[in-house]
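[Q] Does anyone have a clean structure-token version of this?
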Amino acid sequence: MVPSGKFRITRQRQVILEELRKDTSHPTADEVCQRVRQKLPHISLGTVYRNLELLAEYGLIQKIELAGSQRRFDGNAETHYHIHCNRCGRVEDLPVRPFRINENSFRATTRFQITGHRVEFFGLCPKCRNESELTARTD
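[A] Here you go.
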């Protein structure tokens, strides 16, 4: 749900958006801050956090939250899915078309007001899988 009210794209927000959209690594706020500081050296981590949250609230970016790990951010705001490595925490876009889920069909099953859904996949990235296989062979 997009918050109501005026929303301006300030210079800081523009630089944050540019950095997120040119990278598909789904960086943490700390990583975004390091990249943004190359263009805006005096920007604080708190300012980056606040702006990332606002950009996510307004639907311009995605916030990826996974229990037990830092939030990550995605410059691609279109509906798509992610896959997370259980070992190293790497996050990638899953190259499949989004499922067709009719949220209205679930309204009769709950008293919640449904505002959206998220589908996430987990596994081992190729690097961690190879390391696992090598460790298993040497044991």
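[Q] Thanks! Anything notable?
[A] The helical segments are 11-21, 29-36, 45-57, 126-138.
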